[in-house]
Amino acid sequence: MKIDAKGLNYRELNERIHDAVSKGVDEIDLVNVLGQRYIGTGLDREVTLNIYGTPGSDLGAFMDGPKINVFGSGQDDIGNTMNSGSIVIHGDAGNVVGLSMRTGKIFVKGSVGYRAGIHMKAYQDQCPVMVVGGKAGDFLGEYMAGGKLILLGIFKKEKDQVAGRYIATGMHGGVIYIRGGVNKNQVGRDVAVEEVTDEEKAEIRGEIEEFCRHFGITRIDDIMASPFVRLSPKSSRPYGKLYAY
Amino acid sequence: MRMIPPEFIVKIDDTCIKCKRCVNECSFGALKFENDRVVADHEKCVACHRCTAFCPTYAIKVEKFPMSFKDNALWGQDILKGLWKQAESGAKILTGAGNDKPYPIFWDRMVLDACQVTNPSIDPLREPMELRTYIGKKPDKLEFWQDKKGDIKLTTVMEPQIKLETPIIFAGMSYGAVSLNVQLILAKAARELGTIMNTGEGGLPQELADYKDNIVVQCASGRFGVDLSYLNSCAAVEIKIGQGAKPGIGGHLPGEKVTEEISRTRRIPSGTDAISPAPHHDIYSIEDLRQLIYALKEATRYKKPIGVKIAAVHNVAAIASGVVRAGADILTIDGFRGGTGASPQVIRDHVGIPIELALARVDEQLRKEGIRHMASIIASGGIRQSADVLKAIALGADAVAIGTAALISMGCHLCQKCHTGLCAWGIATQKPELVKRLKVEEGVRRLVNMIKAWNLEIKEILGALGVNSIESLRGSRERLRGVDLDEVYLDVLGIKPAGR
Ligand code: SF4
Ligand code: SF4
């Protein structure tokens, strides 16, 4: 099914999407999308949304199951507090990607803005995954409580740093992998930065392969050949000693 | 040597029959049975009065430790003790319950009016008194249409509303801060009374699922347990920006309180700190707040009112205006007396402003801007009794939220040790042996009784005021007068002094 978003405001557009999904449509092409917010927000079925154009903020917020493909770039708050499903962005993404996501996957071919992956969480076998092909702005993975965030830095200018400042401040769970590495002074002080061994690289290869598949990238061995660092919390209780009773 | 003297001394006299009940009841480990008698470790006593409540002979008494410090208006005892504690630990002092400092209580400096001679009062025993309150966005205007038969129909589409049978709701208290039994009591009592409770930010325990029409679920900065089924298992969703007891800071539920059950509702591994960041990291502006409000409206398909809770701070009126313009259907303002499961003492006692002043200013500002109807106002943070409810409504609140008062009805003795997780009354604890002390049915009975009593008192005063519905008192500051208040405070409260 196809919906032409031209001239529709977000409420009309989302009403049509919800309508179609409730009638059992399982794949929708959305064309001429131009800044409409909340696409896929609150959907709880495994429907596929193919978005052509630029969706607005809160794409897939609170969603539980949909597969969203954006053939363009996204704006802010992509996958905000999402519960499950996947979001694949063929361009860049704005600020606050994957805030508090609980499971599901986000793949961004290009770069992400500030505050990506803040407070991602994991619980039992639920583990969210985010893979970013380009670079990330400041505050990556702040307060991270669980999940896996992989930053590849393949689509960026040589001189650009792969990530900004204040990486993983307050991190108390989960893991961040950064290809190429970071300076210690970019990273929160309660976070351990370690070289990734070949065995561990093999463990994340699956996610990186999936990333490459989405975007037709074939040089996976080149990507894997570079050094990676792993950022993980030194404690699951970063604030344990701050209080007197 | 002991630098810090005990706060209380436990005295056990010779009427003790050695039944050991007090020893079993003390969850703070202050009492032991040794050498055929009860021995007290005074330092551990917090004056929760669980022992005195159980002693069959009134043999046990808790008194203030009779140590006189040299009088000093500047260096109070509590300041000295705090400094010693910090010198020992190097840590921030954590505390529970609400701000206990002697700031002025404006509720006690306002009095209500009554009818005499010139306009008759109403007897609530004889005439119906309406306490029903609708919470939610009201339309700018109402439009009607007359059909062929001459029947008048409303054509304005109403935004979703919550129907309350009393203007008193229960404040957000999370599973984690309080026990599951407390939440069950609040939910059951809310259903019986026709009002609502609020899950706080700890997710929705599955045991509460049946009560969803009487539940407000919170979406706080930690987003614990927030998913689509949570957002749709409720009467309304509340975005928690701030809390009166700790404005501007986040919350940390320490790992030792994250039990298996709590981990399930919060959906985080047990034993890890549950950290709510200070801000929502998707809200750095009023525009961002609007975006989240509408994300939640989209996620709930516009079927539920979306509320925003803020702490009362200096610029509260301007902030409230922004929040209402951002699209909040309900605005909750929590004053600096509001309770907490755990807060750094320095924040609890020194940050924020009294709810009375904040409420008056917010109501006035929204009226001035012509947007007062766009959101209902809930006032909270130090509402202790029915008189406070009436005064809050006269100052402009649509309803009030109570937390501490509800807990007191269940047995809380305000020992302020909620942050320790050892609550002897089974309220602010997750220890199974303590949780079971608070019986759900008994708690419901007591809480329902208390609110019914308040309802009766509210009706009594409405009758005395000569009005027959709570609606008629709403925002009617003419029915309030100030006593012992200077001109500035009278002006902020928008009331006249008594005698004028
Ligand atoms: S409860 Fe009273 S009578 Fe029983 S042991 Fe304690 S002090 Fe003695
Ligand atoms: S809830 Fe319990 S710990 Fe907290 S003040 Fe009341 S009695 Fe004390």
Provide a concise account of the structure shown:
Helix content of chain A is 15%, strand content 27%. Chain A has 245 residues and is α/β, with parallel strands linked by helices. Chain A folds into 2 domains: 1-77, no CATH class; 92-239, Pectate Lyase C-like (3 Solenoid).
Q: What is the terminal separation of chain B in angstroms?
A: 60 Å
Overall mean pLDDT of chain A: 95
Task: Provide the residue-averaged pLDDT of chain B.
Answer: 95
- The number of helical runs of chain B is 15
**CATH topology value of the largest domain in chain B:** TIM Barrel
Structural class of chain A: alpha/beta
Low-confidence stretches of chain B: none
Number of helices of chain A: 3
Q: In the residues of chain A, how many domains can be counted?
A: 2
Query: Largest sheet of chain A at a glance?
Result: 11 strands, mixed
Largest sheet strand order of chain B = 11-21-20-18-17-14-13-12
